[in-house]
Amino acid sequence: MAQKVLDALKANHASAIELTESLFGDEIAWVKRDSLVAVATWLRDEPTMQFDSPVFVTVIDRLDWHPTGVPLSAHWSDESGKPRFEVCYQLRSSTHRYRIRLKVAVPEQDARCASLAGIWSAFDWQEREAFDMYGITFDGHPDMRRIYMYDEFVGYPLRKDYPKEKRQPLVRRDDLPINPIKAPGAPHGDR
Amino acid sequence: MGVELTTTRLEDAAKWAKQSLVERASNWGRKFSLFSYPFVTACCGMEFMSVAGPKYDLARFGAEFPRFSPRQSDLLMVVGTVTEKQGPALKRVFEQMAEPKWVIAFGVCASTGGFYQNYSTMPGADQVIPVDVYIPGCPPRPEQVLDAMIMLMDRIQQGRGHSQLRTKREELIAAAAANDE
Fold first, then answer.
1. Structure confidence at residue A102 (pLDDT)
2. Is residue A178 part of a domain?
3. B65 located within any domain
4. A133: how many CB neighbours lie within 10 A of its CB?
5. Is A121 inside any structural domain?
6. Which of A4, A12, A34, B168 sees the fewest Cβ atoms within 10 Å?
């Protein structure tokens, strides 16, 4: 069904679309980072598209990506050019009943992406969540700061190289003797 | 002055907890008029409502009304998962309560963090505040909560709550210092 959308995207934005995939009934368009806002605006405003429903935005961390594990396009088959993050926008058109997923490849060294919060305001908090958990900065976002974790938190907890039980306590008890078994200088808490 | 003040072992606590008649009477009063402050953060709150409701009826034990101001309560019930972000709020609520005060960790998350072994969840409310009674269960049955309440009442009567022992210890320290002078 949404193959029509992919065809229209390729016809109208040939230079912006890196490649398209159809996986498990979902149509995916890989969009170049610089063209994301233009493509998204077109998808919203074009009468034959009318994508009016932003479903979600999330990020996939491909740190431990395995070539046979995930269907990946031939485009990034060489290991060196493979980007670490995929920013993933799911859109829906309630008029035409289309679904489309826009993906943007984001390298680790330059973890930035264009914000779509100006086009669909529902992406505002979702992009903040993606920033909070994965550290992708969304350029053009009106209020780019953490949404779940506290400001003192260092790092991005859902990145796959964040130790999963590494806590960063804000406060601990001060009425207990320090456990002498623990090494001096050991992190506060978990006595 | 021969009072050992550096240890918190239970037998010493029992020694300190020798009570005068007045203390025994006031503790008897305290244990039958617990005012709880439910610090409800998660799904265990449903079970807390069930305990507080008419069927299991926490009010039978004198813990009649949940008080929604920490200043008017003397029993803090930490009900549900405590995140690291909530830690300062929990500590502040505890500090606002008037002495003597007691804490129940309601459910496995408040006791140990439960199955949330991750970056955001505090491994038990006792990382931040002293807890008197832990209730396991996910969520605990109301009978377990009533059992814990009776345990806590016994402990209050014996003067062995955390805040009671601390007060007693501070009194002994003050008395020892006065004796030394």
1. 92
2. no
3. yes
4. 20
5. yes
6. A34
Residues of chain A above pLDDT 90, percent: 38
Res. B29: pLDDT tops 60: yes
The CATH number linked to B155 is: 3.40.50.12280
Domain ranges, residue B145: 10-180
Domain that holds residue A16: 3-139
Q: Are A43 and A73 a contacting pair, CB within 8 Å?
A: no
Cβ atoms of A141 and A124 within 8 Å: the answer is: yes
Q: Answer yes or no: are the C-beta atoms of A62 and A84 closer than 8 Å.
A: yes
Amino acid at A84: R
Q: In angstroms, rounded to a whole number, what is the distance separating the alpha carbons of residues A49 and A31?
A: 17
Prior bond of B139 cis (ω within 30°): yes
Contact A190 B123 (CB under 8 A): yes
Tens-digit pLDDT profile for residues A3-49: 888 888 888 888 888 888 888 888 888 888 888 999 999 999 989 88
Instruction: Quote the pTM value.
Output: 0.81
Contact B119 A164 (CB under 8 A): yes
Number of structural domains in chain A:
1
Q: Is residue A169 part of a domain?
A: no
Out of A149, A150, A171, whose CB is closest to B91? A171
Whether residue B6 has pLDDT greater than 70: no
At CB < 8 Å, which residues of chain A contact B? 148-150, 157, 162-173, 175, 189-190
In-domain check, residue B90: yes
Q: Is there a contact between B118 and A165 if contact means CB atoms under 8 Å apart?
A: yes
Q: What is the pLDDT of residue A1?
A: 64
User: How many domains does chain B contain in total?
Assistant: 1
Q: B4 in a domain, yes or no?
A: no
In a domain? residue A107: yes
